[in-house]
Design goal:
Elements lengths: L8 E6 L6 H7 L6 E3 H8 L3 E2 L5 E2 L5 H17 L4 E4 L5 H5 L2 H6 L3 E6 L5 H9 L9 H13 L6 E4 L4 H5 L4 E2 L5 E5 L6 H7 L8 E5 L19 H11 L5 E3 L6 H8 L26 H10 L3 E6 L2 E6 L15 H6 L7 H11 L4 E5 L10 E2 L2 E3 L7 E8 L2 E8 L6
Parallel strand pairs: 1-5, 1-6, 2-5, 6-7, 8-12, 9-10, 10-11, 13-14, 14-16
Antiparallel strand pairs: 3-4, 9-17, 12-13, 15-16, 17-18
Helix pairs in contact: 2-3, 11-12
């Protein structure tokens, strides 16, 4: 079972030609998520004649093929998409080259091992392939030897094909033991409003889910509200991020944090500032780059949980349905939501229509029509009014929503 913190997966299929990798992809309907090395070869170049006079997939373009595959995988990982690599992945180096991408984009790397297939069975299957797909048996022997000599890199978890859905199916966490669950909407630098809510601190018997967009936009905040209190917000999150009863989701404002991870040689947080979403002078507040990176690593794209007889999906952007397996939904859609910003009402209406009566959704991020907090079984915690913080709580009696209004901030 996938833990509540594992959502981004890069899956390597590892085995000799004829071991059943491509069949596994078809039988599990994974074609839309799979990058096949042979398919990319055929995209770049059609079959060529071999020295025997038979058509074959060209192996002389491998450098271009793997350069293209690496670029495609990087693009997918930037959006947090579930991705499968269908190739032999025989040598340690074939998988190790993705180590940096896995770390940068906070992925979990899984290897599905097909090495149990007997060599002669694989060769027999290979002979029955379309003529241009047949691999020389000497090549199969060499790949078989490499797989048996070399281990998969340590950052990758190895499983057998039959364990795929057991390992990668996202199941709801059961939070029924908590007294109350607090969903904290887009903070956007409103530290004062947040502290009004947490005047008595955090209760160990409660669960706190923060929906993202923690820092604010100084250039867009109203004059009667004051500048965003970003350093204070970040310090507060750093102080609570390791608590068992705190879950921090990722919002689109947190893209700045990723820039720190991507630009390891840079040292100034301000160098990664976007003109719209930035962290003003947080170094001067004593917040180091490593602190921000540690916070970033705690951020998750969603949480799906059970509380009594209710099931609740929490994302930053909002989804229009609850897929059978959330692993297949890209993190970018969870963070930015499906559709356009102005589709918030339609997203809520379709989620309510596409799910059963005991399934609920909580999200923030967008609300251009200034919808109320409660929209059927969807709760919108994005307030279009500056200086307001939306919160919804859930206990055994049901949901309760509130909107905290603050006066002009003082510093």
């Amino acid at each position: 079972m996938v833990s509540r913190y594992d959502m981004r997966y890069l899956v390597f299929l590892r085995g000799i030609p004829g071991s059943g990798k491509s069949t596994f992809v078809r039988e599990n309907n994974l074609e839309p998520y799979t990058i096949s090395s042979d398919s990319v070869r055929l995209l770049l170049k059609p079959p060529v004649l071999s020295v025997t006079g038979r058509p074959a997939i060209s192996q002389k373009i491998n450098r271009r093929v793997w350069g293209l595959i690496y670029s495609i995988i990087k693009c997918r990982m930037e959006d947090g998409d579930f991705t499968v690599i269908d190739a032999t992945n025989a040598g340690n180096a074939d998988i190790a080259k993705y180590r940096k991408l896995v770390r940068t984009y906070r992925y979990t790397a899984i290897c599905i091992d097909f090495s149990d297939i007997p060599l002669e069975i694989a060769k027999e299957r290979n002979r029955k392939r379309p003529e241009y797909e047949i691999v020389p048996e000497t090549v199969i022997d060499e790949l078989y030897s490499i797989i048996n000599r070399q281990k998969v890199p340590s950052f990758v978890t190895v499983i057998k094909p039959q364990k795929f859905y057991e390992k990668l199916r996202y199941k709801p966490a059961d939070f029924s033991h908590y007294r109350k669950i607090h969903h904290i909407g887009d903070i956007a630098g409103n530290y004062t409003a947040l502290m009004q809510y947490f005047a008595c601190g955090l209760n160990d018997n409660d669960l706190y889910i923060f929906l993202g967009d923690y820092t604010g936009r100084e250039v867009e905040r109203a004059e009667n509200i004051g500048n965003p209190e970003n350093p204070e917000i970040i310090k507060f999150l750093l102080s609570i991020m390791c608590r068992e009863n705190v879950i921090l989701l990722e919002g689109d404002h947190e893209r700045n944090f990723r820039r720190l991870e991507e630009g390891e040689k840079q040292t100034q947080i301000s160098e990664f500032a976007d003109t719209r979403y930035y962290l003003p002078e947080i170094e001067q507040a004593g917040i180091t780059r490593n602190c921000v990176l540690n916070l970033y690593k705690k951020l998750k794209p969603c949480i799906y949980y059970k509380f009594g007889n209710r099931y609740v999906l929490v994302t930053h952007g909002g989804l229009s349905s609850l897929p059978e397996n959330l692993v297949f939904v890209g993190a970018e859609q969870m963070i930015n939501g499906v559709g356009e910003p102005e589709d918030a009402y339609m997203v809520a209406a379709n989620f309510n229509k596409n799910t059963n009566e005991n399934t609920y959704q909580v999200h923030g991020h967008r609300n251009p029509e200034n919808l109320p907090i409660e929209n059927g079984r969807t709760f919108n915690l994005c307030s279009e009014k500056e200086g307001f913080l939306r919160i919804v709580t859930l206990n055994r009696y049901g949901f309760h929503s509130q909107e905290i209004k603050i006066q002009k901030l003082t510093f």
